Amino acid sequence: RDETPLPYELEIQPSSKCNLKCEWCFGTALTCDRLPDKLGSEEMFTLAKRVADLENEEFGIETVKFCGTTGEPLMNPHTAQAISMFKNLGKKVILFTNGVLLDVEDELGIPNLDYIALGDRINVSLDCGSEETFRAIKKAPGFERVIRNLERLVRRRTELGTNLDIRLSYV
Question: pLDDT tens for residues 45-77?
């Protein structure tokens, strides 16, 4: 047809800030100012509505990814809630994260991992096997916290009966 097809995947980078300083990350080498987090809950809702409005008979966004080229997606406090917004629209939702902030609670006292357990996949970047190595390469503590968060996420996935695919990756 002469129509331009709609994208089938949307990548959202909700924050350019990070809670770690990984040696290999080009985000740590940026000399420009970080972009402010502009995606609040209202903006996330508007974005979800626009994605829903794109739907037509043959095309539409199937997958929404929350990732960060220069930042950690969960540094934006509205990312976790947005996962449930897009899931309610029937979208496949994927989160790329360093895993440290999975236990942070929103203003209602709900931990991020409760929202994340509703998603389809989480990819946690875990580049080491000990707290000592984590501190050496990421310049901050967090290994034990990530492990506890993953254990809690697995339990929550089981409690909710979801099919969240939990993956670990490393550079």
Answer: 998 888 888 776 566 789 999 998 778 999 999
Give bridge partners of residue 66 from the DSSP assignment: 12, 95
| Structure-block tokens of residue 84 | 């449930």
pLDDT tens for 105-124 read 998 999 999 999 999 999 99
Q: State both tokens at 80.
A: 């976790």
Q: Which residues pair with 63 in a beta bridge?
A: 9, 92
DSSP secondary structure, 43-102, as one string: HHHHHHHHHHHH--SS----EEEE--SSS-GGGSTTHHHHHHHHHHTT-EEEEEE-SGGG
164/146 Cα distance (integer angstroms): 17
Beta carbons of 119 and 64 less than 8 angstroms apart = no
**Which residues share a beta bridge with 166?**
122
**What is the C-alpha separation between 134 and 16, in angstroms, rounded?**
21
